[in-house]
Amino acid sequence: MTLVYFAWVRQKVGTGEERIDLPPGVATVQDLIAHLEKRGGGYADVFGNPQRLRAAVNQEHAGLDAAISGTDEVAFFPPVTGG
To answer: What would the pLDDT profile of 25-55 be if each residue is shown by its tens digit?
Structure first.
């Protein structure tokens, strides 16, 4: 699985992209967020409050309940605001 991070999410976790093996029991974006939060440090800061995040699975906006697989690309980014 490829994880991609944008904006302050990238700054907090310290990388823009990484590859991981999908952990057992991780089947949704929400499950992945919970797994990433357990890494601690910047990951805990970012993923400890999922309401501050948006996600995309294979470049399509996705809700926290979206199913994921080990071949997916999952991106995390802050909500976009305009003005």
So the answer is: 999 999 999 999 999 999 999 999 999 999 9
Any idea how long the chain is? 83
CA distances from 24 to 29, 34, 81 (A): 13, 13, 35
Domains and CATH numbers, the chain: 2-77 (3.10.20.30)
